[in-house]
Design a protein that fits this description.
Length: 78
Amino acid sequence: MGSKGSKPRKPQHSQHLPKVGTPQENAHEQKAARHAVAENMSLGGRSDRSGTNVAVGIVAIVLVIGAIGGLILLVALR
């Protein structure tokens, strides 16, 4: 037996999952799936992005824009 000031057995913030097939359960599953996809794409709420990731992203964007510009020039000069 715990004393009056001891830690409760169960946290107060715990919630049961919704019943299967309900709209609440469907929404919960969709949110979990979106979160999993974002985590796989490295977009999952990380606020400590490294400079390397940012640099690689910028270089990739510049290369794509350059490739599109080069194709436009090739077609225009033909």
